[in-house]
Amino acid sequence: MMTYDLNDKVVLITGAAGGIGAATARELYARGASLVLTDMQQTAVDTLAAEFTPSRVLPVALDVTDAAATKAVVQQTIQRFGRLDVVFANAGISWRSGASTITNCDEAEFEKIVEVDLLGVWRTVRAALPEIIRNKGQVLVTSSAYAFLNGMANAPYAASKAGVEMLTRCLRAEFAYTGATASVVYPGWTATAIAKVAFGGNATVTKMNEVGFPGWLRRAIPPEQVARAVAKGMQYRRPRIYAPWRWVPFSLFRGLFGVLTDAMLSRHREMHALIQQLEAESKHG
Ligand SMILES: NC(=O)c1ccc[n+]([C@@H]2O[C@H](COP(=O)([O-])OP(=O)(O)OC[C@H]3O[C@@H](n4cnc5c(N)ncnc54)[C@H](O)[C@@H]3O)[C@@H](O)[C@H]2O)c1
């Protein structure tokens, strides 16, 4: 099977200044790709871009919820590099602080998470599609193990991650005839800013994590491990890219696993007490 050579390919990354985005940028650059680095703050992408040869990098501020701005960045990419081969729709957010349940979360914050994590991905992918198809390139979308885990206390995030997983599967099937491909990236817990809440950032959420998962499963991996998996997945145009591999059986047997864990969670007294504690700590609605 012919592998996809990243040398001289142009890759646009959203959320590039974050943990997984920056690690992936470095990995792809080392494999010869030119990069369009986008994130909320220009200074953040400028700092990352300073690590690379100027002729192979374009740092641009981009909020992925802005559909027009996303299309403009694709045009800027074409003006600068003449093409766009790969889009990595990776930007994501979770609760600003702590965590909330569906019952007592702030409504605007719930919808903002869905706007970034689901609609932001759709807007990024849609803007890039004409170029990706023209170049028989690739779409990569960062989903999460939350696409197949019960996402309690993280509902807008988990719902969005399940949503982008399906969006990507649909896309892969719909444009298979063009020669382009789409891949879902499933990171498990990774040591970046977004995951801090579950690793000491919030005591109740950390406790829920400890009660809900065995230690070997919830151990966070470095973002570089996700980056290597993404680069390898791109090379083989894999439909599913997991990091770490320990999540693979849970994804593959998600039907049975979901039935069992949902039943367990509905009877788990200690977890119910923690949920109540969380609600008491973060009263909104
Ligand atoms: N860290 C984990 O445990 C983990 C696990 C599974 C999936 N993920 C996903 O990986 C992706 C990258 O996250 P990370 O772990 O590197 O976290 P991170 O917080 O370090 O990076 C996220 C980046 O997205 C950017 N961003 C946020 N809102 C944006 C917007 N509207 N427009 C553009 N950029 C925006 C942030 O500025 C930040 O740089 C996210 O989609 C996240 O949901 C992370």
Automatic annotation (TrEMBL):
Gene3D superfamilies per the UniProt record, alphabetical: NAD(P)-binding Rossmann-like Domain
Keywords for the protein's UniProt record, in alphabetical order: Oxidoreductase
Top-level taxon: Bacteria
CDD domains hit by this protein: SDR_c
Organism: Ralstonia flatus
Protein family: Belongs to the short-chain dehydrogenases/reductases (SDR) family.
Classification via SUPFAM superfamilies: NAD(P)-binding Rossmann-fold domains (SSF51735)
EC annotation from Swiss-Prot or TrEMBL: 1.3.1.87
Membrane-spanning parts: none
Keyword Oxidoreductase: yes
Catalytic class of the enzyme: oxidoreductase
Keyword Membrane: no
Protein name (Swiss-Prot/TrEMBL): 3-phenylpropionate-dihydrodiol/cinnamic acid-dihydrodiol dehydrogenase
Boundaries of every Ketoreductase domain copy: 9-192
